Amino acid sequence: MANLKDLAIQLFDIQAVKFGTFTLKSGISSPVYFDLRVIVSYPKIMRSVSEFMWKAVKDAECEYASICGVPYTALPIATCMSADHDIPMLIRRKEAKGYGTKKIIEGHFSAGDKCLIAEDVVTSGSSVLETVKSLQDEGLVVTDAVVLLDREQGGSKRLAQNNIRLHSICSISKLMLILLEAGKVDQKMVNQVQKFITENNTFNPEAKPAEEVKKVLTYVERAAQCTHPLSKRLFSIMQEKRTNLALSADVNTAAELIQMADSIGPYICVLKTHIDIIEDFSADLIQKLSSLAAKHNFIIFEDRKFADIGNTVKQQYGGGMYRISEWADIINAHAVPGPGIIQGLKEVGATKNRACLMLAQMSSKGTLAKDTYTAESVKMAEGNKDFVIGFICTEKLSSDPAMLHMTPGVQLSAGVDGLGQQYLTPQEVITNRESDVIIVGRGITQSANPMQAAKEYQEAGFLAYQALFN
Ligand code: 5BU
């Protein structure tokens, strides 16, 4: 392996490092430019670069299960590190494929795995952070990034701000000294580059960590991003009726359910049922419920919580006395049986344009749906976006704007019931947990004036949504 001095000179000789006047992506004019893309034409230099980078992370004793190069220049570098040192690699697509699995990260991994980032040049750190974000969205953890050249313009601090350590092989100052000593540049150029670096520091100590600066999208913008007709329709209803309230109509007779649906209908976007607690279920109830859904423009969600193997849930969903798939726009499913449950439900529901929510978290005390289970449920949902349109959860779990987050266990004041239910307020759910829909049951159904209560929940939920834009 070449020493650093040799490598720096080789990079200069192959014009991976150039001096002159260059306009950078940001529009700023720079006296120095790195174009590491050319190293693919020089396999020995490529190997030398990847060896330096591997050694740096080894010396720093970084822990990681896989490596991911920032596309595109660092891809071959990461590939060499991976192949030479038997480190599994992940590839981040710049755009998700429009067909097949629509994956943005290719390769095998489990949620919670640590992934090392490899990059050719770091300026502000934003390209590294983009890749980090995609990995984090899939449940991966990033603590370290390794880079060949650090332009010393604030990238390492920006990454530190996001809890990522940057390991660089060569800083721009060190590179300039080597090239000066080797007679490749003169002192004037060294000074010019130094001046440029000092004057073009991108680091803002006040900047919020990257994950906090994401833009909040309106329901209209999110509807536009949905490919499933039901999520598109739901976001449109939320905007049109100015409500993110779902009523959990947990009553025991058909008459009560119909009465609730008709009186509360104007205030809700979703009516959630537990059809198996109705004592006098009949086809007539379904017919009335469906016409009320049309009259008040809400979506029907049967909270059936399917939890069996694909073949069984298919029959439970499509058959039996309730024939759920014939009238419920949305159903939900536990992730515990594995992806077969989604396949089974999809076989019945997809042709009817029905959709499913994954139970990724629950509101009840002591729930086992947490940590890795939640992360795996999210992955399962995201791998089946043609049928799964979101989650039952207690916080935002996916950055995909098309994915809906619906949260049960909501009342106007936080608290518990006697059987493990835990309540959050509408504001906590929408503002802090960044969920989309509040699901309210007894807060409305057992209030002295359910209609008035529904109005209050509608207002509280929608005000919290509007406040996201202030
Ligand atoms: P409540 O009366 O607002 O506590 O009713 C909550 C409803 O949401 C009720 O129908 C539950 O079956 C449902 N629910 C829940 O409370 N918590 C969960 O994690 C899930 C569903 Br999933």
TrEMBL record:
Positions contributing to substrate binding: D250, K272, S363, Q421, G441, R442
GO biological process: one example: 'de novo' UMP biosynthetic process
MF annotations from Gene Ontology: orotate phosphoribosyltransferase activity; orotidine-5'-phosphate decarboxylase activity
Pathway: Pyrimidine metabolism; UMP biosynthesis via de novo pathway; UMP from orotate: step 2/2; Pyrimidine metabolism; UMP biosynthesis via de novo pathway; UMP from orotate: step 1/2
Keywords: Decarboxylase, Glycosyltransferase, Lyase, Multifunctional enzyme, Pyrimidine biosynthesis, Transferase
EC number: 2.4.2.10, 4.1.1.23
Xref: PROSITE patterns: OMPDECASE
Alphabetical list of SUPFAM superfamilies matching this protein: PRTase-like, Ribulose-phoshate binding barrel
Catalytic activity: orotidine 5'-phosphate + diphosphate = orotate + 5-phospho-alpha-D-ribose 1-diphosphate; orotidine 5'-phosphate + H(+) = UMP + CO2
Active site: D303, K305, D308
Signal peptide (from-to): none
Domain Orotidine 5'-phosphate decarboxylase, first and last residues per copy: 244-457
Function text: Bifunctional enzyme catalyzing the last two steps of de novo pyrimidine biosynthesis, orotate phosphoribosyltransferase (OPRT), which converts orotate to orotidine-5'-monophosphate (OMP), and orotidine-5'-monophosphate decarboxylase (ODC), the terminal enzymatic reaction that decarboxylates OMP to uridine monophosphate (UMP).
Complex formation: Homodimer; dimerization is required for enzymatic activity.
Membership in a protein family: In the N-terminal section; belongs to the purine/pyrimidine phosphoribosyltransferase family.
Protein name as it appears in the record: Uridine 5'-monophosphate synthase
Species name: Capitella teleta (Polychaete worm)
